[in-house]
Structure formats: structure tokens, C-alpha cells
Amino acid sequence: MTLAEYMAAEQKAVDAALDRWVPREDQNPATIHRAMRYSLFAGGKRIRPLLAIAAAQAVSDAPVGIESCACALEMIHTYSLIHDDLPALDNDDLRRGRPTCHKVFGDAMAILAGDALLTLAFEVLSKMDHTDATRRIELVRELASASGTVDGMIGGQVNDIEGEGKHPTARLLESIHRAKTGALLRASVRMGGIYAGANADQLDALTSFGEHVGLAFQMVDDILDVEQSSEALGKTAGKDAAQKKITFPAVYGIERSREMAEEERLAAHLALQPFDDRAQRLRQLADLVVRRQA
Asked: Which residue, 27, 35, 99, 290, could crosslink 105 as a Cys pair with Cβ 3.0–4.6 Å?
């Protein structure tokens, strides 16, 4: 099976699980459920769920029910995008190639849609059937920490907002993106490993892999914001520079940023040595992250 075929199959499984977990569009109150589904099923690549699934498969041959764990990650990611696009934050009109949630449903409903997805993510983890209570608690802790204020996604977003217009330094750049983007990507592979029963050495290897992939992802994201069009990206291009955000190209330039992303890709591969061929999908996903064009 090619990587494209693998991704399509797993994306289909995740989408089916999301459809089961998220209330129907006609379920009262209907507007909030339409808004949640509008953003959740807008055509995302499902990178975080795919990383969780591939990590679980590297640890265990048949991690039954991993799709629900992956759903929680996608819900958190989508909530963060809905809120990021709001006028009070990045004020963007385009996401995944179509109008952002607040442009369609209004600011108030978009805020509530993000809140609802955040809340639902933890409900999903608490209700998973194929893992015991101890492991469910570990997964809740992992996702909450990665999403929070101390070295987590929200903390990184705060640093990103407060860094606008400041002199771009390597130290500030890393403090933003290890948390804003990297924390949830690292949590994706860690949660896949936890779900599948990874031992301490396996979890350490997955953690290192996730950290390298997280940095590489942001490096490439920053490069694409400079080089690609809004049509290609599915979101407004050039906003980082317009808002004077601290990015890898702003600190290191385009070419060095591209070299650094490749270095992180190779380091991610090395981190997976304890898994041998069982981690082939993770290696392929790391390659995809670095070589993608959108």
C-alpha cells in the first residue's frame, strides 16, 4: 500500500469516527453543530490523527479503537484554527480553501464552536471503549498539557501574539513554535504510543520524533507562507510578514530555514531507530511534512 493509499484509508476511518462523535447538524441547538461540522469536515489533511495512528501501529500490530483517540486530537486542532482565525487574533477570512467559521456563522457562534470542540475532545477520551481507565487518564493528561499554557499550544499562541512587531530572535522563535505548533504534534505521537501501550524507551523515541517533526512542520509552514499563493495554501498567504510575526524565515532566511527543516526530518528518522521497519509510516509522514507544498 502506498503512502497516499494508507493516508486515504486512515483519513476515511477518522472521518467516520468524527461523524459518530459529533452531534448531527439537525440536533438541537442545530446552529452550533453546523458550525462545528463546517470546520471539522472542511478538508484538513488529518496530520495529527495520522501521526497518532502510525505511532500506535509502530508499537502494536492492532491498536483497536485508536481512531477515537485520533479524533480528540483533530477536535483540539480544529478548535484552535477556528479561534486563531477570529478578528481578535489573526483576523483571517480563509481556511482550508473556504470562508472561515466566523465569516459564515458569526464571531459568537465561532467562539462557541471552538469551545464545543475543545470540550468534546475530552469527552471522547473519557468514553473510549478499547482502553482501561488508567490509560484514558494518561491520554487526558497528555492532551490537556499539550493544549495548555505552560509549554503548550495556548502558551505558544500567547507568545506569538505578544511577539508581533518585536525583534525576531532565535530564542523567542523557538519558545513560540515548540509550544504553539510543536506541543500538539508531539502529543499526537505520544498519545498514539500511550494508547498502544508503549514502554518507556518507546515513548522516549516517539517524543523525540514528535519534537523534530513539530519544528520541521512549522519551518515549512513559515516558508510556504512566503512562497505560496492563498489558493495553493487554502488560507491567506503572506500574513506572517504583514503582521510582523516572528517566523523562521524572519530569523534565518528562506534557504537556511529549508536546510533546518531537512535537518529536523533526518533527526526525526534517527529517533525511530528502536522501531526498525515498524515505524515506516511515521518516517513517511515526516518526509511528507517537510516536502509538502501546501
From this structure: 35
Mean pLDDT of 253-257: 95
Neighbours of 260 (CB within 10 A): 16
What angle in degrees, to the nearest 10, is found between the helix axes of 170-180 and 182-195? 40
DSSP assignment of 2-25: -HHHHHHHHHHHHHHHHHHHSPPT
DSSP 167: P
pLDDT at 44 over 90: no
Asked whether residue 232 carries a pLDDT value surpassing 80, the answer given is no
> What is the distance between the alpha carbons of residues 146 and 280, in angstroms, rounded to a whole number?
25
Spell out a b/e string for 33-71, using b for 16 or more CB atoms within 10 Å of the CB, else e: bbbbbbbbebebebbbbbbbbbbbbbbbeebeebbbbbb
Q: Which domains does the chain have, with CATH numbers?
A: 3-291 (1.10.600.10)
The residue to which cell 489558493 is assigned: 231
Q: What's the confidence (pLDDT) of residue 294?
A: 73
Q: pLDDT value at position 202?
A: 97
C-alpha cell, 252? 534565518
Q: What is the pLDDT of residues 127-185, one digit of tens each?
A: 999 999 999 999 999 999 999 999 999 999 999 999 888 888 888 898 898 899 999 99
Instruction: Note whether 24 and 123 are within 8 A (CB).
Output: no
- In 105-146, DSSP assigns E strands to none
Kindly state the DSSP code that residue 168 receives in the 8-state scheme.
Answer: P
186 grid coordinates: 508531539
- Which residue bears the cell 486512515? 10
Q: What residue has cell string 491520554?
A: 139
